[in-house]
Amino acid sequence: MNDWPLWEVFVRSKGGMAHRHVGSVHAPDAEIALRHARDTYTRRMEGVSLWVVPSASIVASDPGQDASMFDPAADKVYRHPTFYDIPEGITHI
Amino acid sequence: MPALPPIRPEDERCAAKDGPHGAFDPRGEPEGPALFGYLLRLGDDSLILGQRLGEWCGHAPSVEVDLSLANMALDLIGQATHFLNRAGEVEGKGRDGDRLAFHRDVLDYRNCWLVEQPNGDFAQTMARQLFFSTWQKLLCARLVSSAEPTIAGVAEKAVKEVTYHQELAAQWVIRLGDGTEESRRRIEDGLAWNWRFVPELFEMDDLASFMAERGIGVDLAAMRPDYDAQIAAVLAEATLEPPADQRPILGGRRGHHSEHLGHLLAAMQFLPRTYPDAVW
User: Fold this and answer.
1) Best residue in B64, B66, B74 to probe A by mutation, most A CBs within 10 Å?
2) Contacts of B62 in chain A (CB under 8 A)
3) ∠ CA B32-B37-B42 to the nearest 5 degrees?
4) Can you name the residues that pair with A52 across neighbouring β-strands?
5) How is residue A25 annotated by DSSP?
6) Contact by Cβ (8 Å): B191, B174
7) Phi and psi at residue A74, in whole multiples of 5°?
């Protein structure tokens, strides 16, 4: 339906994992959006939890500001934690 | 003209054993015609409604609704597969679920009238779904303790599926009823169309009573108060009046069907009947 608002869908694939954006659905309201998300994105056992968010509520960065937003990070290699020697036997890094 | 042969004592014994010609006698062992007939009722309800919902594929109001309807259809056809495969085993004539689904004539179908009714518009489809899924949810909740292990097993899986079907149908009936003037008129028409087929769902004929006595089936009539309360709650939220009572239409359980079922079967059975060797 063209007059239904758009909702962004997030699926948690299993307990302990973060919800991941998987796509969007049209729906007249939040309750139906959740059911449309269930029927569209979890019909093959993809998830254990669902979020739907009105697409209009997402605040997005401006593609026109890509240069000032993201380019400055390109030459800051020292921000990557790769300059340490990790001793043998250390786990969970 | 030669006289008819005299009736001998062994003929009388034989006639007494068979009972009146054409009469249904459920008083045999449950592992027989009665259980076969009961499994057909369960399986045919799911099969025919699954096929009906499948007709929406590619035609629903939105792609999301298309998927909702197709998902429900596939749940129902899954249930039908289990019930009809078991029916074939019980019958013992080498027929499996596919054979029973695709090579059985309309008079041998045992589904209720409600599920064979045409889709109409989206509102009529959702009215039918609310009436059927509310009933099927109550039924499956009781069949989980059926003395027939296959029925109990299928019911345990189906009760979750059917609960979702009922919730989805209820959500749509509420939105259509409490929506625009046009959506309200359409759902009122859809409810009125399907209402006369509801009493059949609770009919306790000989076969249903026999199965309930054996602990295989359930007392359908006893589910009616719960059913009415659940339907009333949805209609109240939808700001709709319950449809006016109409003359109930019965007979699906004994093979009497509306003209719609023959057309549905013609579409559903065409391919396997025309190409019997066709495989996936």
Assistant:
1) B64
2) 1, 4, 26
3) 130
4) A9
5) E
6) no
7) -70, -30
| Residue A1 sits at the chain B interface (C-beta within 8 Å) | yes
Under 8 Å between Cβ of B114 and B127: no
Q: What is the pTM for the complete model shown? A: 0.86
Percentages of chain B per state (helix, strand, coil), in multiples of 5: 65, 0, 35
Q: Which of A29, A31, A36 sits opposite B64 (nearest CB)?
A: A36
Beta bridge partners of B229: none
Q: B-side interface with A, Cβ within 8 Å?
A: 61-62, 64-65, 67-68, 71, 167-168, 171-172, 175
The whole-angstrom separation of Cα B109 and Cα B116 is: 11
- Tell which residue, B241, B214, B220, has the closest CA to residue B140: B220
- ipTM summary value: 0.78
Quick one: how far is CA B279 from the chain centroid?
27
Q: Are B63 and A4 in contact (CB under 8 A)?
A: no
Say whether A28 and B175 touch across the interface (CB within 8 A): yes
Closest CA to B35 of B106, B84, B95: B84
Query: End-to-end CA distance of chain B, in Å?
Result: 61
pLDDT tens profile B106-160: 999 999 999 999 999 999 999 999 999 999 999 999 999 999 999 999 999 999 9
Q: How far apart, in whole angstroms, are the C-alpha atoms of residue B127 and residue B176?
A: 10
The pLDDT tens digits of the residues spanning B159-212 come to 999 999 999 999 999 999 999 999 999 999 999 999 999 999 999 999 999 999
Task: Determine contact, residues B115/B147, Cβ cutoff 8 Å.
Answer: no
Lookup: tokens for B186: 């359409």
Inter-chain touch A36–B68, beta carbons under 8 Å: yes
Sheet holding A20-26, edge to edge: A20-26, A6-12, A49-54
Q: Do A40 and B64 touch (CB under 8 A)?
A: yes
Alpha helices of chain A — where are they, by DSSP H?
30-41, 66-70
pLDDT of amino acid B280: 75
User: Is the CB of A39 less than 8 angstroms away from the CB of B175?
Assistant: no
